[in-house]
């Protein structure tokens, strides 16, 4: 009688699927998923968070009448600071000049890319962002997934045409990682 090699069991296929599914979840969903899975042989690594120290956390930008481009403001060094990154959340508070057209933007761009200028679409390097800045100070949160170790940059756009400002305060960067370093 021929012996056939055992085929993968439904349970082992489910474990592979669970690992794949967990890589697509947002940070909040991954936390819930890792704490609630009932599959006995699948224990996703418990996530940990790490704060990344940013060189600048608050600044007021005053727009130049003839400058419509975004400006590089901060760098997010994830390659050397983090291990097994799932996602990143950038948060803080912001507002524009408080009247008139709303053009302010904050965006996260893959290192080496460029953020959009006024009235332009987001390009392939932009992984997340928020626009337009509100007239009244309010909170923002930008969450993006990281599929491979790389660095990112934070860009801001005040807006051209004169009279525009953009104020960003209390910028924080939290990284959700699988397991520990």
Layout: helices, strands, pairs:
Layout: H1 10-22, H2 27-36, E1 47-51, E2 59-62, E3 71-76, E4 85-96, E5 105-110, E6 126-130, E7 138-145, E8 152-157, E9 165-178
Antiparallel strand pairs: 1-9, 2-9, 3-8, 4-7, 4-9, 5-6, 5-8
Question: Gist?
Answer:
This protein has 181 residues and is mainly beta. 13% of the residues lie in helices and 36% in strands.
Question: What labels describe this entry?
Answer:
181 residues, mainly beta, 5-stranded antiparallel beta sheet, 13% helix
Descriptive report:
- It contains two helices and nine strands.
- The protein has 181 residues and is mainly beta.
- The mean pLDDT is 84.
Number of strands: 9
**Main beta-sheet strand count, sense and barrel state:** 5 strands, antiparallel
Low-confidence stretches: none
Q: Whole-number radius of gyration?
A: 21 Å
SSE order = HHEEEEEEEEE
How would you sum up the global shape?
A: elongated
Task: Give the amount of beta strand, in percent.
Answer: 35-45%
- Helix and strand content put the structural class at mainly beta
- Cα distance, first to last residue? 50 Å
Number of helices: 2
Q: Indicate the mean pLDDT.
A: 84
Helix content: 10-25%
